[in-house]
């Protein structure tokens, strides 16, 4: 049944990939499977207000407020998102929307907000859908929200659920699919269920390469096919590592994935160098610290200069001491964010 007006609010976290998604095909389908930790503190909160429109609807009708301010520049992206998802949510043209969104992390911090932002918006739209079709099961609600989020930004489909989330079909991971993110279904050793992620803001500047351009680089990339295959192999290895609590094995896969992502960007045409000098200094410091102390700290990177420092919760005190004494110097304005593995998106 149609509804006249209302509002829904969701808070959706960011996520950090352990095995990276880089390269896509078709309508936002991944060229390889990936797995991520859903974060907790870094999140987007979105309120979607809606009111039925009068008369025949032409285009989409919406306003966008980011941190209280109207943002015309964000509109084309939302418009494209609506165009893509309209066939799955046929009511979109019948409403006027006000999308109010804010991030828990400072904007222009180099932390991508597309994953948290697109998943929060997809969940708000699904709440509308459920109001009109209340029969939908909880499972299908989340699946479809993740499916829609994927059409906004690939990695966003991994932000709907909490914990470890897999996106992209893998023969050894039951239920995995290219269409949406699913909770990692196999046994996970407790050490991985409370992992910490301290995000060092090494360079807060705007990303040098949009992820659209980055994924595009994989078309015709000399190492693309081998890379896609490798991601699957890494996931297979990770399966045993996660079950056994093999933290050393985890470090090897996660750091290799981060460096491979950057190596792939360095070896494309055009080629990109997305680390800063500070990124490399931090990596060296982490390696030295591990060697000297036997710590299980490791790093990962997204398509930028910031460093995600990952470690088991039991090491929290000594790692934060290490961050404060050795790594904070490489952060812009000494800025870093303490995050951890989280429970996924929730309605407010
Ligand atoms: O979701 P997109 O299109 O912004 O791609 C993000 C890709 C990486 O963050 C670099 C890796 C990943 O799997 O999240």
TrEMBL record:
Keyword NADP attached: no
Location of the Mvd1 C-terminal domain: 199-329
InterPro entries for this protein: GHMP_kinase_C_sf, Mev_decarb, MVD-like_N, Mvd1_C, Ribosomal_Su5_D2-typ_SF, Ribsml_uS5_D2-typ_fold_subgr
Keyword Lipid biosynthesis: yes
Pfam families given in the database record: MDD_C, MVD-like_N
Diphosphomevalonate decarboxylase-like N-terminal domain sequence ranges: 13-169
GO biological process: isoprenoid biosynthetic process
Any GO MF annotation of the entry: ATP binding
Record keywords: ATP-binding, Lipid biosynthesis, Lipid metabolism, Lyase, Nucleotide-binding
UniProt superkingdom: Bacteria
The protein's name in its UniProt record: Diphosphomevalonate decarboxylase
Taxonomic placement: Bacteria, Pseudomonadati, Bacteroidota, Flavobacteriia, Flavobacteriales
């Amino acid at each position: 049944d149609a509804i006249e007006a209302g509002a829904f609010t969701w808070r959706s976290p960011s996520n950090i990939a352990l095995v990276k998604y880089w390269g896509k095909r078709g309508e936002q389908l991944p060229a390889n499977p990936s797995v991520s930790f859903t974060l907790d503190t870094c999140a987007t909160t979105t309120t979607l207000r809606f009111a039925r429109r009068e008369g025949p609807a032409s285009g989409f009708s919406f306003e966008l407020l980011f941190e209280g301010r109207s943002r015309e520049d964000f509109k084309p992206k939302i418009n494209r998102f609506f165009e893509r998802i309209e066939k799955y949510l046929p009511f979109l043209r019948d409403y006027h929307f006000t999308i109010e969104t804010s991030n828990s992390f400072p904007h222009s911090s180099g932390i991508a907000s597309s994953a948290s932002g697109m998943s929060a918006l997809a969940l708000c739209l699904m709440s509308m859908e459920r109001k009109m079709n209340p029969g939908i099961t909880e499972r299908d609600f989340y699946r479809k929200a993740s499916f829609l989020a994927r059409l906004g930004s690939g990695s966003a489909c991994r932000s709907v659920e909490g914990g470890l989330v897999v996106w992209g079909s893998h023969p050894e991971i039951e239920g995995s699919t290219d269409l949406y993110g699913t909770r990692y279904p196999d046994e996970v050793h407790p050490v991985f269920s409370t992992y910490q992620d301290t995000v060092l803001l090494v360079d807060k500047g705007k990303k040098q390469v949009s992820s659209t351009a980055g994924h595009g680089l994989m078309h015709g990339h000399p190492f693309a096919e081998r890379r896609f295959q490798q991601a699957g192999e890494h996931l297979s290895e990770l399966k045993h590592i996660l079950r056994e609590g093999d933290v050393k094995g985890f470090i090897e896969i996660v750091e290799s994935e981060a460096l491979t992502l950057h190596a792939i960007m360095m070896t494309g045409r055009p080629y990109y160098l997305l680390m800063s000098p500070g990124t490399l200094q931090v990596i060296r410091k982490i390696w030295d610290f591990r060697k000297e102390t036997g710590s299980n700290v490791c790093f990962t990177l997204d398509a930028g200069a910031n460093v995600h420092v990952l470690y088991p919760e039991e090491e929290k005190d000594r790692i934060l001491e290490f961050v404060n004494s050795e790594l904070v110097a490489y952060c812009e304005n000494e800025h870093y964010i303490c995050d951890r593995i989280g429970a996924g998106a929730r309605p407010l």
